[in-house]
């Protein structure tokens, strides 16, 4: 009889010990790559090893090399953590091991994703009937949204890109802010459009696209996609979505919104005015593993034009079983064929938190970002951005070398973990507050550590 209890019990004990220790754990890896290779490596195993022993060896071996991104004092990148309900559902997702491409292969997964998709559309305040795809992250969400856009704008110019490809097709212009995220460029490369199709639109001092400059580039003579941004990766700044949509649609352009973390601002009554008019866009990309705090990987793409979404993604083959009653096949809405049933964890997160709980996470992260900025500014640190969401961009002594040294030293010190960046040609520390557990004590302790490191290095 197969021993499930041994390895799963070992994993449970290791997991709960890790999660319970996050509030006091040093925030940063404690082993080098070489040390990890020495502990975990060796020659290819020739014989079987007891499964529980393997799990114990793996957990012990990686322990010193983990970056505790689930900590309330982890402020690097825009990662978020994971809520208990989402983690538990994700574990069950692995146990159930459903291939969520077709309804026939995973009926429960298909229905849960359908329900969750409806919840997400309502949560974000998007048009009824908006289609949803569950993808790996914002990279593939941008890819999928832009694939739907490519289909639609070429169809409007009499070209079937899914049938005829891009050779001989009318050239597409992509109007995107000068401070767009690199996933947009990468998605355009994947789609065969290349980055030379991008027309960079000037941005203001916070990184917001200037709608007046966008208007100067819009034309009805050429297939056009406008890429707007909700949440500049450095400053958190939000493009003027309402005006962008109005101007773009006057010229028959498709508007795609890269809202990897910023789309969740729609859930907060306090922050919603910043994204007024976002429902007028044509497609949206976001991550559930950011502000919803669902485990990796969990991206979302939403499209106001399901027919374009399906045209870009769907597949038919003689061996595939499509439900005769028209039940939802997930592969019609994402670029994968076989894939994990990501909808279970998103469903659990939303059901456990509710709209109010999600809004509370967003509002608290925003408040903690403001607290960070106010504390550092009061102690002579240069805060470079208006804190409109969860991003705080700071610089020390107006000095590139000092700023980079502070970032490295803070990461090494271990109280908290922030990432460095370059903005407007200058080095900066980027503080991203995205974790559902982060509170005042985490911020105050982390700010004190940053200030102490900066003072020592000066």
TrEMBL record:
Lineage top rank: taxon: Bacteria
Any Pfam family matching the protein: Pyridoxal_deC
SUPFAM superfamilies noted in UniProt: PLP-dependent transferases
Key words of the record: Aminotransferase, Decarboxylase, Lyase, Pyridoxal phosphate, Transferase
Residues with N6-(pyridoxal phosphate)lysine modification: 290
UniProt keyword annotation of Lyase present: yes
Stored InterPro entries: Aromatic_deC, PyrdxlP-dep_de-COase, PyrdxlP-dep_Trfase, PyrdxlP-dep_Trfase_major, PyrdxlP-dep_Trfase_small
Reported cofactor(s): pyridoxal 5'-phosphate
Family membership: Belongs to the group II decarboxylase family.
Protein name, UniProt field: Aspartate aminotransferase family protein
Source organism per UniProt: Kribbella turkmenica
Phylogenetic classification of the source organism: Bacteria, Bacillati, Actinomycetota, Actinomycetes, Propionibacteriales
């Amino acid at each position: 009889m197969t021993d499930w209890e041994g390895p799963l019990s070992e994993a449970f004990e290791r997991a709960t010990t890790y999660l319970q220790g996050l509030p006091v754990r040093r925030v940063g890896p404690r082993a080098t790559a070489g040390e990890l290779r020495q502990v975990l490596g060796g020659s290819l195993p020739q014989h079987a090893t007891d499964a529980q022993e393997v799990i114990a060896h793996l957990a012990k071996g990686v322990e010193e090399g983990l970056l505790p991104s689930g900590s309330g004092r982890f402020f690097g990148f825009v990662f978020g953590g994971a809520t208990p309900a989402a983690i538990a559902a994700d574990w069950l997702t692995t146990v159930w091991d459903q291939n969520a491409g077709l309804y026939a292969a995973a009926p429960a997964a298909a229905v849960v994703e359908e329900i969750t998709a409806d919840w997400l559309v309502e949560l974000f305040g998007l048009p009824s009937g908006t289609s949803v795809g569950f993808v790996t992250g914002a990279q593939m969400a941008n890819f999928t949204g832009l694939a739907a856009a490519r289909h639609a704008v070429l169809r409007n110019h009499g070209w079937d890109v899914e049938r005829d490809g891009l050779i001989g097709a009318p050239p597409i212009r992509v109007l995107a802010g000068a401070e767009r995220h690199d996933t947009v460029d990468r998605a355009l490369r994947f789609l065969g459009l290349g980055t030379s199709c991008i027309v960079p639109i000037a941005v203001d001092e916070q990184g917001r696209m200037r709608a007046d400059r966008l208007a100067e580039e819009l034309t009805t003579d050429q297939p056009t996609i406008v890429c707007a941004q909700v949440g500049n990766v450095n400053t958190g700044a939000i493009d003027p979505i309402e005006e962008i949509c109005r101007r773009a649609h006057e010229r028959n352009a498709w508007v795609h919104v890269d809202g990897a973390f910023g789309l969740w601002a729609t859930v907060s009554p306090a922050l919603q005015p910043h994204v007024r008019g976002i429902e007028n866009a044509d497609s949206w990309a976001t991550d559930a593993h950011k502000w919803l705090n669902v485990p990796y990987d969990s991206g979302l793409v939403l499209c106001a034009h399901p027919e374009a979404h399906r045209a870009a993604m769907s597949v038919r083959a003689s061996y595939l079983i499509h439900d005769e009653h028209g039940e939802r096949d997930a592969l019609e809405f994402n670029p994968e064929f076989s894939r994990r049933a990501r909808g279970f964890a998103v469903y659990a997160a939303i059901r456990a938190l509710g709209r109010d709980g999600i809004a509370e996470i967003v509002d608290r992260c925003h408040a903690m970002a403001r607290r960070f900025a106010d504390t550092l500014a009061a102690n002579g640190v240069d805060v470079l951005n208006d804190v409109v969401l969860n991003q705080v961009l700071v610089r020390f002594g107006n000095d590139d070398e000092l700023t980079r040294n502070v970032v490295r030293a803070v990461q090494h010190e271990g109280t908290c973990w922030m990432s460095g960046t370059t903005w407007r040609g200058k080095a900066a520390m980027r503080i991203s507050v995205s974790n559902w557990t982060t509170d005042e004590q985490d911020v105050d302790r982390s700010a004190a550590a940053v200030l102490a490191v900066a003072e020592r290095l000066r």
